[in-house]
Each structure stands twice: as C-alpha cells, then as structure tokens.
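User: We ran a pulldown and think these components assemble together. Before we commit to crystallization trials, I'd like a predicted model of the whole complex to look at. Sequences follow.
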Amino acid sequence: MTKEGGRDISATSPANALPMKDLTPSEEIRSRLAKFQKKMAEKGLDLVLIIQNVDLFYFSGTLQKGYLFIPAEGDACLFVQKNYERAIHETPLKCVRLESFKELPALVQDHQFNGNRVGMELDVIPVSLFYRIKTLFKNWEILDVSSEIKEVRSIKSDFEIEQIHMSGRIVDEVFSQARQYIREGVTELAVDGILTSIGRSHGHQGFLRMRGLNQEMMNIHVLSGESGSTHSFCDTPLSGSGLSSAIAQGSSRRRILRDQPIVIDYGGGYNGYVTDETRTFVIGRLRDPLLRAYEVALDITGEMESSVRPGDSPMHIYERALEKAGKAGFGENFMGHGEGKVAFVGHGLGLEINEWPILGRGYRKPLQAGNVFAFEPKFIFPGEGAVGIELDYVVKENGVERITSFPTELIVL
Amino acid sequence: MTKEGGRDISATSPANALPMKDLTPSEEIRSRLAKFQKKMAEKGLDLVLIIQNVDLFYFSGTLQKGYLFIPAEGDACLFVQKNYERAIHETPLKCVRLESFKELPALVQDHQFNGNRVGMELDVIPVSLFYRIKTLFKNWEILDVSSEIKEVRSIKSDFEIEQIHMSGRIVDEVFSQARQYIREGVTELAVDGILTSIGRSHGHQGFLRMRGLNQEMMNIHVLSGESGSTHSFCDTPLSGSGLSSAIAQGSSRRRILRDQPIVIDYGGGYNGYVTDETRTFVIGRLRDPLLRAYEVALDITGEMESSVRPGDSPMHIYERALEKAGKAGFGENFMGHGEGKVAFVGHGLGLEINEWPILGRGYRKPLQAGNVFAFEPKFIFPGEGAVGIELDYVVKENGVERITSFPTELIVL
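Assistant: Here's a predicted model for the assembly, 826 residues in total across the polymer chains.
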C-alpha cells in the first residue's frame, strides 16, 4: 500500500501516463522541502499540513485530492484520497491511501507526526474545512504558514526557470501569429478565440491559476480602443468589459477600428508555470499622447532592465517607474485611471500569476536571484484606450534577463 | 455617493458599458433576496455578509470586489471597494463606496445593520479573512449560510433558464461543428483548441466556475481511446491525463485513431450560466462491449427522461441508473472504474458547475421544479476508453425538459 522514497516504477503505470521526463525531478522536490523545513524550524513549527492543490503539487510533484504532511524533520508523506495510482507514478514521496478524511488522525499517529504547533495555508483554506480539521486534531495549535510557502516558492530553481521558458515560448508563438488575425472590423472576441486556440495547439495547459478567493484570470484579453480604458473589480491596470456583468473582464464584441490602440495581454501556461506578457498593436497610426506614452512605457522598461539587481526594493522599482511616468506628464494615466488605478507595476510569476515579489507600494523585501516577475508599465486614457507593454524577467546575480524573445516595439499593421 | 433603489441611469456609464438588456433584472434580484431572507428568518439570522464573487453576483447583479450585507428584513446594501462606477450601472441595490476594509464596522452601524447572529459563506471564505472579520466585528456569532444559499440558487427563475438556454446554444454550435475537425491522426489538443475557439466566437464567456477550494473545471475535454479511461483527482467519471502532472486533467497530445471512442465533454458559459454536455464520436466502427454500453447509456437517459418528476429523490434516480447499468453487465464500468469511480450520475448547473441537486449517493432532498441538472451516464473500459452521454435538463411541473437540441446518437465519422 505504501512505498518509501523514489517513484514506484514497478507500479502499474496509469493508462496514458505522462512520460517521466515531464515530471518534477526527485532532487527538486527534496530541495524544496528542505528549504521549507528550514523556515518551519525558524517559526517553531512541528508539522505542516498542505491541502491547496498548487502548494501540494509544488511540494510533491503530483496534483491529487490529498493531504501532504511535512514534519519539521524527516520525510514528508502524502495521504491520497484520489488518485493513488497516479500519485505513486508522479511523486518521489511516500504515499498512503486514504479512504476517508476521518482516518487522518490514526494515520498521522502511525507515522509519528508528533507535536502540536501545526502550520496550514490559512490564506486559502475555507473556514468549514478548518473546523473539520480542528475537530479531528483537538490539540493542534494552528498557525498560518502561507507567507513561508510564498517565500520558498518565490525563488525559482533551474528546473522551474526551464519550465517558465517553455511557457514563454507559447507567448512568443501567439504574439508572432497575432498580426495575421488583427483586421479592421473583426471583433476582439474573434481574435481572442483564434489566439487561444493557437496557444493551446502549441501546448498551453488550458488555464492560468491565481491564488485566493475570487481571483480569476483569463488566458487572454484583447482590448481595442476604449475597451482598454474600461476598469473592473480586477486588481489589474486593464481589464475590459468582458461579455457580461457575470464575468466583467476580458475581450468584448467590440469591433477593432483603425488608428486605435489594441492591447493584447496573454498568459502562457506550461507544466503549471505561468508567463504573462502584453503588446500594443495598431492598424494605421497611433496618435499622441498615446504614441508618446508607449515610448515612455519602453523607457521605463529599459531603465528597469539596465538597473535592477538582487537586493533592490520592489517598492522602490515601482516608485521609480511612477516618477518617470509623472515626469513625462502621464502620472494620471499610469497603471490605471481614477478608480481603476492599481499600486504596482509588476508581479511575481510561477505556478500562480500573483506570486511574490509584487513590485508595488508596501513591498520592501529585497529582490533575490531566482525571482521571476512580469513588469507591466501601462497607460490608460479614458474613452480612448490603453497602451503599454508587459515583459517577463528572471532575476540573476548581475541583473535581470528576459524570458521571451518577441520584440517590444509598437506593432503597426 | 449612494443611491436608493433602481439603477442609477443618470450616473456616467463606464466606458464600453454593457447594454442594460444583458443585466439581471431588478425584480429578479429582489425576488432572490426575498426568498433568501425567508430562509434567514427560519435560521434566526439577523444579517448575512456575502463575499464570494458568484454569490455576490447572484444577489446583486454585479461582480465587484465588495461586501454585500443582507439584513433579515429591509434592503440589502453593497459596499464596493472596486469598481463603484460599474457597480452602480449594474445593480439595483444601494451601493456605498468603501475605501478600506477597516471602514466596514462604521458603515454597518450607519446603515443600522444590527444584531449579532450573522451568516457567512463558510464553505469558501478563507480562515485568514474570517479572522480579520471577527476582529472587526467582535460581537458577531458567525454561522455557515452556504446551504441556504445553495438551496435558493438551486431553483432557477425564468430569467435564469433563458440564460441557460443561451449557454446551451453554444454547446449545440460546438457539437454541430465538431465532426468537421475530428480526423484520424489529429491530436486531442488540436480539436480542443479549435472547438474552444468556436465556442468563444459564439459568445462563450471564457471559463467555467466550480465552487470550492481546488475545484478546477476546463471548458472542454477531448478524450480518445485510453485517454477516456485515465482517471485523476477530479470528482468526475472521466478526466484524461492533461498535458502535465500540474494540470492532471483534459486533452492530451494523443492522436485520434480509427475504431476508438472519442468522448467530448464541453461546457457552455453565457452571462455566468454554465451548461455541460458530452457526446461520443468514432471514426470507423465502435465495437462491443463499448457499442453496447453506449446503448445502455441512452436507455438509462431515456428512462430518466420519461419518469423523473418533481418530488423524486436524486439518490433514487442515481440508484435506478446504477441498477440498470448493473443488469446490463456494466456495473464495474459505470461512472468510472476502480479508483476512478464516482458516486453520482448527475449534478446541478447554474452559475457554478457543481450546484444542487447532486444526483448521487446520499442526496435525498426531493427534486423541485426549476432545478437544472446535467445527467451523464458514462462507462469506462480500462485501457480502451470511455463511452457515454451527458445532457442538460430543467425540471418542470410535469417532468424534465432538455436544454439543448443536438442529437444524442453515437456520431460515426
């Protein structure tokens, strides 16, 4: 029923199983766990219980309905409700079948996961599940461990950076093909559908993940003219109207017109890893002040690229961008307008689209080598639309390096 | 800053605002609230605080970052953090701007939302948000009100059924076009991409919602041959391998072959409302026992269609299907195989894909007119694939009525 260390190659592979090469390497999983256990020790935790699917995948290499127990020292164990057969094929960790949630206390005792200071992902675990767990484990003192998880996840390994590059290749492919489909009179929605399909056929995983209640992220936004200046509930500089008040973001039935900015924000997704870039297109001619604002977006990006180093404050990077936008006379338009304004210019990327670091107000923890982020200076002009760019970077010892290769210029059709 | 009753037509419409005709009618919102307030009274609640985006949209007609307070008697009020401008265009309810979460207690007092028995959506609200709320409202006794919400939402109004029919038209369109793209040697992924694009260009909202932590639902699964018998963490009879262990469901790079079943599960989405249907295709010839199993799936569907009435037990409908599958000799294959088996044959549909009623083990609350559900008898043959059908129904006073019109026969190409 169980196994110790190493994937169970002898186990019957599930039908249509994924090839081993696509799986997270064993040493990668062990390194993630070791880093996390160090943070657990600093916080004085005896045990951590991981339930959220993305964290569970990050620490085990498999995405199952299950409960991952990580002790302060020693081996983690995955109690799997569904699907055990796939779990043992995908994770190097010990797996134990779990028929019912109620068996957990006995299993935890069997595995000598002792101690009562227990960490959980309290930023995402719903209250009723939390109560059920407290009923099973009456002596647990439960602490939030979501910051420690986010910190470990914010430093990407070489394996992760490879996956992010693969994700970026989908973005390059989609932007390379976009110009063929952007035509006067075509709806945003039609372009959205075609580009989504192209991304998918090039291996896009299907959807993007965003951490937290009510966080929804579409794979693509195609926003032309004033769609670019329509804001929403989303904590993003652009969002569009979407097709209805029920979705409230994304491409609409608006037809693309000449001489109006067309902003395409597209997120790649490969083996869980998300990329997120934006380009601005125009059929005909982009006029000032929008054309000038696009140049300022490129300037801001260029300055960031040439100056940012590990140790820099993410908030300071944001403030420098804000200052540059203000000096160019576009302070009011930068990163939204009026109620739509957001207080950041970039965000971390990984298995979720809202990872750390956030390059924005209040985020002071210094950048570190291995951080991956999207940088997105954008300008919104009410009633006219938006212009801007978004590029993804990995932080290296001596600066930042782009993930994708598609050019950054305004694309004139 | 605020308004009483009726949408604020005088307010400046946000750029690219949606036309009024697509918004949830005022009388619809008032009727939903009145039904819910009746349930609140039964439970002895003074107040309910709604935060989850789908519930907030259901009860207000607008999807915002905000807090909807529903008193036991009198008018509900939406405190809007972002986006106020869109909120007042979309909801008939009173809206109040909220700069910061911490202002809530003062605003609640201003609006005389008294009493301390307060309902919240504890099935989805994360623990850390819950703690923040408890810190602001120290005297609140907080009870879970998710069952009451699900009950009200499980009975669809005429307006909702119209939206669901519009959603079903996207499903009809996608299935009508599917046969053109299913070819020997084409990958599941390529068919997935094209059909997703067709759905989107016909007004698909972009993604489907599923309630709860870790619940992820793709718009489409194209599963050929043994992909149909690959199970996963998903609580669904079929899931496929997906492109990687990070997603673990959905279409794969497998090429479609002759004489193998191809199962396409596609979900429509219109104005928030989800539909969910499945058809089986084959290039060449489907052999027994799979062909025979498909006929049994149609038999089970036919019996359900002709017999089900309001008042029936959802569990009983499931047991009858199970019995019929067993008598035909396909008990082991019905609704999954081995670890992949699920204990239901249908599920409610609405703004989320896992609404009430669930036609499965343990669900005894009688069907009511206005329930909408997907019915999906499916058979899984390990290593060979899956066959089956899924159709959507609305429960009427005298029986059930289909939502879509695309034929139910096995599609031979």
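Residues 1-6, 9-15 of chain A have pLDDT under 50 and may be disordered. That may be worth checking against your pulldown data before setting up trials.

User: Thanks, that helps.
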